[in-house]
Design brief:
The complex is a heterodimer of chains A (117) and B (113). With 117 residues, chain A is mainly β. Chain A is built from no helices and eleven strands. In chain A, strands 2, 4, 5, 6, 9, 10 and 11 form a seven-stranded mixed β-sheet that branches. Chain A has a four-stranded antiparallel β-sheet with strand order 1-3-8-7, with no helix packed on it. The radius of gyration of chain A is 13 Å and the shape is globular. The termini of chain A are far apart. Chain B has 113 residues and is mainly β. The mean pLDDT of chain B is 97. Classes of the chains: A mainly beta (117), B mainly beta (113). At the A-B interface, strand 5 of A face strand 4, strand 5, strand 9 and strand 10 of B.
């Protein structure tokens, strides 16, 4: 059974960056895509981008192009999402999600990122 | 980009009664491989979403058979035959035909009367 465990909550200043991790256990990390999905308070789900470790590539939603970087470290089965130039609108819960058989069939617990001066 | 539109945005259903949520996509989700890439997720309060239905109508592992999905092309429906208290939450449809891009619907909040 695959489990995804994310790093803890973060509080950041506007203009700074945040890096959230997502460690996978079980399964073969390199074989599946890891996406990042965010959810602002009281809002819906927003896909940000994904990486496939075995291919070493990432794709991003146009909205986040140039501001987000998604990477994966096969040696530690950990994926990362770094978001830069933070603004208050980036305050959200950030989820990693693995697509083993189907899109988003496994999820991390979520990481709250608060952007506040 | 494909836009996913759900209706209604909220519904209140008595226990034991049926519920239905519609999801319409701005483009057909039927791929040339014959599959239709439409999924349904449920997000309960304080939890990450969970996959309910894959490729229009296939219940994911452990999903009760009171949940069913149907539809084709651009019009899809999620039905709950008899709503239970544990079904409360927000339901999202999602398309993945436009890989590597994914799009979610706005969500439909289900409450119990």
């Amino acid at each position: 059974q695959v489990q995804l465990v994310q790093s803890g909550a973060e509080v950041k200043k506007p203009g700074s960056s945040v890096k959230v991790s997502c460690k996978a256990s079980g399964g073969t990390f390199s074989d599946y895509a890891i996406s990042w999905v965010r959810q602002a308070p009281g809002q819906g789900l927003e896909w940000m981008g994904r990486t496939i470790a075995i291919l070493g590539i990432a794709h991003y939603a146009q909205k986040f192009q140039g501001r987000v970087t998604i990477t994966a470290d096969k040696s530690t089965s950990t994926a990362y999402m770094e978001l830069s130039s933070l603004r208050s609108e980036d305050t959200a819960v950030y989820y990693c999600s693995g697509s083993m058989t189907y899109p988003f069939d496994h999820w991390g617990q979520g990481t709250l990122v608060t952007v506040s001066s | 980009d494909i836009v996913m539109t759900q209706t209604p945005l909220s519904l209140s259903v008595s226990p034991g009664q049926p519920a239905s949520i519609s999801c319409k996509s701005s483009q057909s989700l039927l791929h040339s491989d014959g599959k239709t890439y439409l999924y349904w997720y449920l997000q309960k309060a304080g939890q990450p979403p969970q996959l309910l239905i894959s490729e229009v109508s296939n219940r994911f592992s452990g999903v009760p058979d009171r949940f069913s999905g149907s539809g084709a092309g651009t019009d899809f429906t999620l039905k709950i035959s008899r709503v239970e208290a544990e079904d409360v939450g927000v339901y999202y449809c999602m398309q993945s035909i436009q890989l590597p891009l994914y799009t979610f619907g706005q969500g439909t909040k289900l409450e119990i009367k």
